[in-house]
Amino acid sequence: MKEALLSIIKDENRIITGPIDPQYLSDNLGRKKGTAEAVVFPVSTEEISGVMRYAWKNNLPVTPRGAGMNLVGSTVPSGHGIVLDVSLMNHVLELDEETFTATVEPGVVLEDFQAYVESKGLFYPPDPGEKKATIGGNISTNAGGMRAVKYGVTRDYVMGLELVLADGTVVMAGSKNRKDTSGLDLKEIVIGSEGTLAVITKCILKLIPKPEDSLSVLLSFDSLKAGIESVRQIIQANLNPTAMEFIERKVIQLGEDYLKMSFPEPEASAYVLTTLDGSRNEINDHLEGLRKVAKESGALSILPLEDKEEAARVWKIRGMLVKGVEAVSEQEPLDIVVPINQIDAFVNFVNAFEKECGMRMISFGHAGDGNVHLCVVRGDRDDETWEKELDANLTVLYDKAYALGGLASGEHGIGLSKQKYLLKASKPENIALMKRVKAAFDEKNILNAGISYNV
Amino acid sequence: MKEALLSIIKDENRIITGPIDPQYLSDNLGRKKGTAEAVVFPVSTEEISGVMRYAWKNNLPVTPRGAGMNLVGSTVPSGHGIVLDVSLMNHVLELDEETFTATVEPGVVLEDFQAYVESKGLFYPPDPGEKKATIGGNISTNAGGMRAVKYGVTRDYVMGLELVLADGTVVMAGSKNRKDTSGLDLKEIVIGSEGTLAVITKCILKLIPKPEDSLSVLLSFDSLKAGIESVRQIIQANLNPTAMEFIERKVIQLGEDYLKMSFPEPEASAYVLTTLDGSRNEINDHLEGLRKVAKESGALSILPLEDKEEAARVWKIRGMLVKGVEAVSEQEPLDIVVPINQIDAFVNFVNAFEKECGMRMISFGHAGDGNVHLCVVRGDRDDETWEKELDANLTVLYDKAYALGGLASGEHGIGLSKQKYLLKASKPENIALMKRVKAAFDEKNILNAGISYNV
C-alpha cells in the first residue's frame, strides 16, 4: 500500500504506514480504538481524489477526519484501510467581501476562522462548544452550539461544497448564489452525514456582518419549569437572543468547584443565561423586553452582566461544566434534543431516573432549541459494570427522549456510539432509504463504513 | 384504471377519467400540454400511498400537483399516467404555540396559511410572489420571495415532512426538533426536488413571532450600479432589511401605465425598495442607518413610506410588473440568480443584449439575494419565430448567468422549461449523482418522470 500511496501523495512525510499513533484510530474521547493500514495527510483535492480512486479500486475502507474532536466514534476506522486526515488543508482560500462569503479548506480550525473573519468586520455564527474542531468536521455533524437559537446551525451557513466521492469523482455542489432551485440540492444531504457520503474538500460559507455589541443577561428562577416557561415567552416577545442556556443550580456548583469561581445569585434553583446582540439601541430595547418577561414569568432576579469580566466569568463557568464533571470521573456525553416545550419534562425525568438507578447525571443545555447536554457519570464503577449499566441506562434515556418526540442527537452525530439507539428508535423504512441514498453516493460502502445507517 | 382507482379513492367524485380538463395537464402558463389517463383528488396519506402502490406495480407515471401555479412545466404529465392533485388536502392540522410549529397538509394555500398564523400573533416568513400557490408546491420549489434576504427561503422553515415514496412507502423525515444530527437528513434532499423524489403529504413548519411593525423605504439613484452598491453597504451596516428590491425606472413605467398609478421620484434611473421590520425602536434605528448609507452611496433621495396607503401603492406597482408586461404581450418569466455582486453586470448585459437581439427584456428583482426576474417579451412574433428566437436568446442569457457564477433558477425550479439549459451548464458528474439519488427514492422513475435531471 505504501508505494501506491506514495505515487499519489508524493511526499513520504505525509504518509504513515506501520505503527499508527492511536490518536488517528479514535475520536476525542479515545475509548473506542479502530484499525487501519495507513494514515495520509493530503494537501489538495487532486490527492484526495487519487487516494479515493485507489481505495475504490481495492475496496479499502476510508475514514475521513479533521481535528478528530468528535465524541461519538465517527473517526474510528475499521479493517485494513486508510485514515484520510485533512488537517493540513487548513487554508482560507478566499474572503469575498462583496458576496459575504468565504471559501475555505475543510481542515480550517473553527476558532481560527472565527477570529479571522471577525478581524475583517464579518461574522461566522455557528459556535459549537468545541472551538478546535475543523470546519469540515462541523459540516459533517451539522454542528450547532449556543448561538443556534438566533443564527441557526452550520447548515444555514454552507452555500457550497466541493466533494470527492467514494470513487474519486470530484463534484462541486452549490455556489456563491443565495438562492438555488436548479436541480437536486446535493450539498444538503451531505451536511450532517458524518463522512459517509463524500469527502469534503472545499467549503463556500456564508458570512454576516459582525454585530456591533453584545450583552449577557442572567435570569434566576426558583424552578427549572419556571425558567423553561420564560424561554417560550422570550421567543414570543421577539427578543431574539443569541443564546439561551438553561442550567440548574446543582449543576453550576460543579463548575464553581472546578474553577474556584463563584456564580451570581446562588440562592436560585435554575438559571436561564441569555445573550443579546446587535446595535446598542437594539440591545437596550431587548433588555427592556427581558425585564418585562422576567417580571411576568416570576423570575427571582434579572442580572445584566454589563461588566465584561463578570460576563466572561459566568460564561466560563457554563463552558467548563463538562470539564468540571470530567475532573471527578469519566462520563458519557449525550446531546439529546427534544421539542422546546419538553425540556422540563425530560430534565425532570433524568433527575428522577438518576435517583432510581444510582448513576449520576448532569444535564444542562440550549433551552432555545431543546438541545439537552447530559453527562452520564461513571463514578468508581469497574469496566464491566460501567459498560453494562451505562448501556441499560442509555436505553432508558433514549427511549424517553423519543417518547417525548425527541432525537438521539442534536449536534454530536450518531457515529458508532449511538448507532444501536438510533436503529432501535428509527422506522425500518427510514433506515432503508438512508441506505439507498448512501449507496447512490458510495455503492461499495467504503467511506466511514462502520457508521450507523450504513450497517 | 378507473375501477382500480375507485378501490383506493372510494369516491367517484374525486376521480376523473375520460376527458380531462386541460388545467390538470399544464402549469400556470398553460403553454405546455401533457397527457394523462386519470386525475385523482386524494384526501389522506393512506389514499396517496394506495395510488402510488398501484402506479408502482403498473409502471404508471404519476405527476403530483397542488394549485398548479408553477411557471416551468413542473406539473405537466406525460404518458398514460395519473395526475395526483393534493388540493383537497388543505387543512392546518395543528398550530403548536409551545414549539412554534404548524403541521399542515400539502394543499394548504400560502396566503390562507399566512393570514391564519398572523391572526395568532405568529409569522411564516417565506413570501414568494404567487400567494395562491400551496405549501407543498412552495416546498417542492424551495420557494424564496422578497423576504428571503432577512428570513431565508422555504427550506429554512421546513422542520419535517411526511412523504409517500414512489412505491407507496410512507416515511416521516424530520420532526418538531430544532436540531437534528440523527442520521441522514432525508427531508433536505426532498425540498426543492419538484415532485421527483416523493409525494409530500404532511409538513411541519417553523413559525416565528409576528414582527411588531414594518416600514418601507424607497432609495432613488442615478444609476443601477449605484443602487446595487448601496445594497452591499446596507448588508454591511447590519440594517437587516426584510426586502431589498431593485427596479429600473424604465421598468417602473410599465407598472405605472398598467395600474394608472404614479411611483415616487420619477426623475431617478433606478430604485432600491426596502422594508424594515421589528419593534418601532429597531425600525427607527435602522432607518437612521439607511439614511447614512443613502448619503454615503450618493442616493438621489431616501423616502420613508410612513403613509401605509402610499407604501401599499408603491408595492402594488412593484408587484404588478409582470402583469404590466403581460397586458402588452406574452412573455417568458425567468428567475436567474447570480452572486449579489454580479447583479449590475448581469442586468447591464441584458440591457445591451436587448438592443442587440431586438427582443424586449424587462428585469427587476431581489437585490439582497441576486435573484433577477427577467421577462422576455414575445411582442408580435408568430409561433415559429417566437420559439426559435426565444430559445436562441435564452441560451445567451443562461450562458451569461453561468459565466458570472450564477444559476438557471433561484426559486421557480427547472421543470421542463429549463431542462435543456440546466443540462448544458451542469457537469455530467453532478447530473449522474442526481440521477442516482433519484433512483434511491424512485428506481422506476415514475414520479414526475419528465423533469430535468431525471431524463
Descriptive report:
The structure is a homodimer of 455-residue chains. Chain A has 455 residues and is an alpha+beta fold. The first copy, chain A, has three domains: 1-210, 2-Layer Sandwich (Uridine Diphospho-n-acetylenolpyruvylglucosamine Reductase, domain 3); 213-321, Alpha-Beta Plaits; 329-413, Alpha-Beta Plaits (2-Layer Sandwich), CATH 3.30.70.2740. Chain A has 15 helices and 18 strands. The first copy, chain A, has helices spanning 2-8, 45-57, 110-119, 135-140, 148-151, 186-190, 224-236, 249-259, 280-296, 308-319, 321-328, 343-357, 383-403, 419-425, 428-441, and strands at residues 15-17, 38-40, 62-65, 82-85, 92-96, 101-104, 122-123, 158-164, 170-174, 199-206, 208-209, 213-221, 243-248, 270-278, 301-304, 331-337, 361-366, 371-377. A seven-stranded antiparallel beta sheet of chain A has the order 15-12-14-13-17-18-16, sandwiched between helices. In chain A, strands 5-6-10-8-9 form a five-stranded antiparallel beta sheet. Chain A is globular. At the A-B interface, strand 9, helix 6, strand 11, helix 7 and helix 9 of A face strand 9, helix 6, strand 11, helix 7 and helix 9 of B.
Please give a handful of descriptors for the protein shown:
homodimer, 455 residues, alpha+beta, Uridine Diphospho-n-acetylenolpyruvylglucosamine Reductase, domain 3, Alpha-Beta Plaits, 3 domains, seven-stranded antiparallel sheet, five-stranded antiparallel sheet, 15 helices, 18 strands, globular, Vanillyl_alc_oxidase_C-sub2 (chains A, B), FAD-binding oxidoreductase (chains A, B)
